[in-house]
Amino acid sequence: MNTPLRLAYSTLFPVTTELQLSPDLVEFLKSGGRAILFGEDGTEYATGIMHPDRIRDETAETWRAATDEVRAIAGLALLALDADISAVHRLHRLTAALPTLSEGKAMTDEAFTAKIHAMAHDARQLGINLVLSPTADVVAKDNPWLAGRTLGDDFAEVSRLVSAYVRGVKRAGIGSTLKHFPGNPVITGLPATQDARIPMTMEALRPYLAPFAAGIEAGVDAVLLSPAIFDAVTPPQPGSISPDLINLLRQELAFSGLVITSDLDHRSTLGNQSLEQIVVEALIAGADLLLVSPAAVPHLRLLARAIEKAVDDGRLPLERLLAASAAVDRVSS
């Protein structure tokens, strides 16, 4: 039976950097959790290069054992990872190679789509059913977070590559994710550790929606929200908990799929609130799946209980929690 507590667990999206499930993650899955992000550590994220020992120790067999274990406990499950051009490809040498950015720009749409399909096909064989890619951000200037990690600085070219990427993943039968909505052209710092802001009006930000619109038109399954604080909304608010920005995604861009937060324990999103407060705020704002870092994994029960309490006291409508859980199910199946 889907009690509010089990539904709450189903909206949590913890990160693990290891294939071996910790006792906390096993308990999470037994309690109703059914989404895990297989992530990377800080150095791997920054460099886009997996550690040599990870490349040595992680094999197709160990990946299949890990994803099979999750599904043996949880049943229907959403298992995700990054598969980025210009940034992190979590499966390193275990899939067909992604093209470099320069190679991708020189390819026809069909050739690029075929390359992405080959990668996604191999990821699916390892038990993955969602990639947190492609990056739809277009960087303008002054961006210590995303500089060198995107698909370029030309709206039309990035939109073309985003669309082709989404089509390639879809052809392989798994889901793709646009990030980091609504775009982060200029940012004042690193969202994980600083109060990073996007100091732009909505009018100035609007052209940067183009690659997101292109990916949605191509049939993307999920959109991941930015962790940064946006001056484009009043009062300024982090993207992952902004009703205005989620409404922009839902209404103006007509996106009906899964809405995922960035790490809710990032400094920019958390601010002075507790993580228990932030997970509830994200659901109320309209997010479906709540990403939390490995540091939060020992506290998943507290987060689920906070969501359950918000339903009990009327702050979070049960219908909103049901809709979020159903959105996770649609991508998991």
From TrEMBL:
Leading EC class: hydrolase
Biological processes, Gene Ontology terms: carbohydrate metabolic process; peptidoglycan turnover
Catalytic activity line of the entry: Hydrolysis of terminal non-reducing N-acetyl-D-hexosamine residues in N-acetyl-beta-D-hexosaminides
Keywords: Glycosidase, Hydrolase
EC number per UniProt: 3.2.1.52
SUPFAM superfamilies in UniProt: (Trans)glycosidases
InterPro entries (alphabetical): GH, Glyco_hydro_3_N, Glyco_hydro_3_N_sf, NagZ_Beta-hexosaminidase
Similarity comment text for this entry: Belongs to the glycosyl hydrolase 3 family.
The name this protein goes by in its record: beta-N-acetylhexosaminidase
